Amino acid sequence: MTQHFSLPHGDMISRQDILVDVARCWRQARDSGSPVQPSLFDLLARSGDMLPPVFDSLLTLYEAALGRPVATGEAAMLSEDEACLLGLVEGSCPVQACIDCAEGAASALQCAICSTRIMIDLAAEARGVPIHT
Known about the structure:
- The protein is mainly alpha-helical.
- Helices cover 62% and strands 3% of the residues.
- It contains 6 helices and 2 strands.
């Protein structure tokens, strides 16, 4: 079942709304052997062509920093990994405080986090959608 998520016009949205859906779609694509970026593109519909590679990079680097597959939750229940990812992207949880990983992995993940914040905000701005945390 394919879900579609697109940034609405004029409504407020949180990064959490986007990140949870994206993380679950990404995990499902990886587990099924499906191409990740086309799956993310299908999910994100008209939210911006640049978001699928941004999210793919973020989640790939997050998984590398964890040293294991990212665990996702179901329905309204967030997994610990999803909650950690949200904290990282929202800035409430610094990488090395949340994840025990090498300095290089932490630096790469931090760059991906910054890029993700910027790209979500740019995509939302282009559609006239305020982002709240």
